[in-house]
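Sharing a chain and its predicted structure for anyone who wants a worked example. Both blocks are below, sequence first, tokens second.
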Amino acid sequence: MVEKESGSVMHSRKAYVIAGLFTVIPLLITWWVVKFILGLLREFGSPAVNWLALAARPFAPDIAEILLNPYFDSVLAIILALLSLYVLGWAATRVIGRRLLAALDRLVHRIPLVRTVYGGVQKFLSVLQVKPDGVQRVVLIDFPSPEMKTVGFVTRTLQDMDTGRTLAAVYVPTTPNPTSGYLEIVPLEKVISTSWTMDEAMTFIISGGAVAPPKMNYDKSAVADEVPTPPGLDEEQTQNTGRDS
């Protein structure tokens, strides 16, 4: 009797621990993603805060000390980074801003090592803004084995020089960090298109599959093949044929 009660207590404790894990894991993942983004913004804005502190030190040392306070420094750096991104986006839509960005782009492309990374990222982002031919953006492919499937993003379509076969370049992000992943080249006929949006797919990947649309196209393409109407058969004849059948 005592052994049964102790076993029941242990089972309850394990259940509580598992329930606690399922409660805290989404919070941890969310915090990790937010912390990563805020860290990038802080690094982007910190030089401006340091410059302001150095400029204010000769005539306002108290303000300089406040600016260099770790907490105030982080918050102000993030705010300045967001303002800089806003101004940059606004300038990119104006004629003068586009000319300045084009000049900066030419300058970066002249730096040997930097232009390789910068050009690759720039092309990748531009590709994501254009829908690939003949396939949806979010797809399923056989990975890492034919018995398994994973979510991927089609970046572009290619053609085999020898056979003329259409191929798809598919980026497969990892969970929960989608910034790292694999690049797979898959025959287009083996790519399964889905009806998911990029936001839905990213949420699915980051959450480890816990958050997803209720349905997915696992076995066939989301875009159904249209049955062509035989030549010379008008709409009325088609409807009559449907009623007769």
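Comments welcome. Residues 224-245 have pLDDT under 50 and may be disordered.
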